[in-house]
Amino acid sequence: MKTRSRIWPGWPLIVFNLALAVLLSRTLEADSSVSSQTNEPETDSYIYLPAVAKPPASICPISSSKQYSSGTAFQFDLDNPVRPAFNHADKNLALRGYVVNSDSGLKRQLIDYGSDDPNRPPQFASLFQPDRVPGFKDFYQVRNWNWASSPNPGSQGGPITSPKVTAMGLATTPGETLHVPRSAYDIGGGMEVVILYADEDTVTLRYTREDSSGSAGYTLHVDGICTDLNLLSLYNSLDNPSGPRYDYKPPNQRPYGYPLPNLRAGQVFGYAPGHEIVVAIVDSGAFQDPRSCNEWWQVRPGYGSCN
């Protein structure tokens, strides 16, 4: 929107308008009636001024110098035809959705559930540099999903109730970088994760080469972010609907491989646009409690022991 101010005669205001015209030369087109040498009122001539805008809520970068590469992912989903990733509720967390858990009795701290992984799962503290345990903003419940035959995405169900927390808001500083969390997993070539899905404000990181969140391994959803523009561009080019990712192969021809972005541990994948990002993690197809101290927070500088 632009506001408009009517011009009235009078030398002081004429001088003001001439100065304003210089300042707005890139947005103001000269009007012959305004530029003519006259002091008669021009009641149908206007200067269009930019509306005063509030500071932007998001500080997402408008360019990127980051570089990313692709590597092989393997098709394990059995959907035929292949379900588009943006319509896949295990790949696109925003499609599934989540709601705030309003239970006031929830522990706003890390919880010791133990760990059933002898190796090191993805460590949330290493989302940040340097590593840290951030404040916890909100706890959420990811929604169940009513699946339908592909390519129909299906529909949202009610919130997952066990565990009580399946997504968590982490406190961030606007503009800070977000990094691929370290783990003990390596998908080859020095790479840590495959990018299963990305859009402007969410990224899904897969800690195996399987293009499926239902099989063994970890899938980390990070939502409410600014995805790096070069990473998003690479993902979109590889997620082409007519490309190899959507060329269905039957199980007897698996594993069938095609390229998706591959990232190293610690590599920047996005930025925090505000004071909270949301994380959710899936282990072998099931959403887990992201408060688990001895799984996702084995690295916890300054936090101390688990409760």
Helices and strands in order, then pairings?
Blueprint (H helix, E strand, L loop, with lengths): L1 E5 L4 H13 L8 H4 L10 E5 L18 E7 L17 H4 L1 E3 L35 E11 L8 E5 L7 E5 L5 E3 L13 E7 L2 E5 L11 E6 L2 E2 L1 H10 L17 E8 L4 E4 L4 E8 L2 E2 L20
Antiparallel strand pairs: 1-2, 3-13, 4-5, 5-6, 5-7, 7-15, 8-14, 9-10, 9-13, 10-11, 11-15, 12-14, 15-16
Record keyword descriptors for this entry.
mainly beta; 2 domains; 3-stranded antiparallel beta sheet; 11-stranded antiparallel beta sheet; 307 residues
Walk me through this protein's architecture:
- The protein is mainly beta.
- The protein has two domains: 2-50, no CATH class; 69-287, no CATH class.
- Helix content is 10%, strand content 28%.
- Strands 3, 4, 5, 6, 7, 9, 10, 11, 13, 15 and 16 form an eleven-stranded antiparallel β-sheet that branches. A three-stranded antiparallel β-sheet has the order 8-14-12.
- Strand 15 and strand 16 form a beta hairpin.
- The longest helix is centred in the N-terminal third of the chain and has 13 residues, at 11-23.
- The radius of gyration is 26 Å and the shape is globular.
- Residues 1-57 have low confidence and may be disordered.
